[in-house]
Design goal:
Layout lengths: L3 H7 L4 H16 L6 H8 L3 H8 L2 H27 L4 H18 L2 H11 L16 H7 L11 H19 L1 H8 L3 H26 L1
Helix pairs in contact: 1-2, 2-3, 2-5, 2-7, 3-4, 5-6, 6-9, 6-11, 7-9, 8-9, 9-11
């Protein structure tokens, strides 16, 4: 039997999908403990009993949001790998930064939720929202930092986290950083990409050359 998340994905115009979309936005803004099912229901324009009918309790809905985001990001990573397979580390990073930033800027609730859940006490007991960390070794290998999973060191993983954390920070903090830089959205995106490439590409190139 399909899960509620599978049903929502299959029918983006369904009530399940509308509730999921609102929940993603609100959890991204306020974290798990800052959101109530009543808040989500109000944003969708339904009564709370309808929300519970489609998703059960708040914990079930939060877990669906985390799973949905996790699967989306893995899909983006796989798309990147298809484009850059066999390319130099410089090309790999340039494409990865462009594609991942485009995704994160298009869906700002994603980096916000990741930052809130990673650095705040916002997750409910029993739900893992750190699943993306499992893919850090795969990214390290793809970037040429190690030949296989056994060869991925803590330092290699930290290099991967440097990329993701930088992108999450710039995209989730757009409203603040845009004000500091005194630029509009399109220019801000361009600046972010250039800055990430300026810092990360030389660092990774040097690291790979020493391996």
């Amino acid at each position: 039997m399909p899960t509620p998340l599978e049903k929502a994905r299959k029918n983006p115009d369904s009530m399940k999908a509308k509730i999921l979309s609102s929940a993603r936005h609100l959890f991204g803004e306020y974290g798990y403990h800052g959101v109530t099912t009543r808040m989500i229901a109000k944003e969708v324009g339904i009564d709370i009993s309808t929300l519970h009918y489609h998703w059960g309790d708040k914990e079930n809905l939060y877990e669906a949001v985390i799973t949905d985001i996790h699967d989306e990001i893995i899909g983006v990573m796989l798309d990147i790998e298809k484009i850059v397979h066999g390319k130099s580390v410089e090309v790999r990073l340039e494409v990865a930064i462009d594609v991942m930033c485009d995704y994160l800027f298009a869906k700002p609730e994603v980096p916000k939720l990741i930052v809130v859940s990673s650095f705040g006490k916002t997750r409910p007991d029993g739900i893992r929202d750190d699943r993306l960390a499992e893919h850090a070794p795969n990214v390290a290998i793809a970037m040429g930092l190690a030949p296989d999973k056994k060869g991925v060191s803590p330092a290699d993983t930290a290099m991967v986290l440097a990329i993701s954390n930088a992108m999450y920070s710039f995209t989730s903090g757009e409203n603040t950083f845009k004000g500091i830089l005194k630029v509009e959205h399109d220019e801000y995106v361009t600046i972010v990409k250039k800055t990430l490439k300026f810092i990360l590409i030389p660092a990774f190139t040097q690291k790979v050359a020493h391996n």
